[in-house]
Design goal:
The protein is an alpha+beta fold. Helices cover 32% and strands 25% of the residues. Strands 2, 3, 5, 6, 7 and 8 form a six-stranded mixed β-sheet that branches.
Length: 231
Amino acid sequence: MNRGLWVGVVLLVVGCSVKKYYTPPPEQLPQPADANGVRVVIEDARPEQERQPFTGPVCLYHPSRVKPNPWDQLVNETRAVAAAMPEKPEKVEIVVTSFRLVQKDDLLAKKAATVGRPMVANPVRQSGPPDPTASGQNSSPAGSDTGPGKDSLLWGFLDGHPTGASCAVRATVRFIYPGGRDQRVNVDRIAAGQNLSGTKYYGDALEDAAKSVVRQYGIQLRQGVGLQPGG
C-alpha cells in the first residue's frame, strides 16, 4: 500500500476512535418523600466507570441528560407499584447499581477497535523507513484515550447495548413492611429508543429509551411483588 495512503487511513480511524470525556452536572436525585403513607428513597450506587461519561463512536451520557429526569421516573414508577400492592410497605429503598444512557454507532466503533491490530498497524510495505508499529505494538501512549486497548475495554461494558440510542437500568428494590419484614426484587432491563427525526439527532431517541426502560423496570418490579404487569 502507498505509504501516504496507509498513513491517511490510520489517521482517519484514529480520529474516529477518540473518546472525549466530559464533566457532567451533579445528578439530581429525588429527595426522600412520603406518598400515600409510603416513603421512597433512591440511592445512586453506580460504578465509577459509569460516572465518567464520554462521547465518540460510542457515547455514554449522564442519565439526567434527558428529560423528564430518569431518576424521578424511577421513583414515580416505584411509587405506582407500591400503591398497587395489597399489603402496603412503610418504606421502599431503590439502590441503583447501573444506569446507562448510550448512543452507539457500530460502524465507527468497529473501525476504532481495529486501530493497532496487526491487520491495520502492520500492513505489507513496499518501501520506506522502518515502521515503528511493524512488531504489532500499539504506538499510542499508555493510558491514552485514543489507544485501542483502553477504548475497546471501556466499550466492552457497553457491548450489550444495541446500535442507536438505548438505556439500561439495574437496581435492587427493597420493600420494608411494618414490623421490619422486607422483600427484595432485583431488576435488570435495557430498552432501545426510536429515532423518528430522520436525522442523526438522537435527543428524542435517548428520551424515548429512558422512558421505555423505566416502563420495563415497572413491569419487572410488578412481577417481582406478585402483581400483574399492567396492574
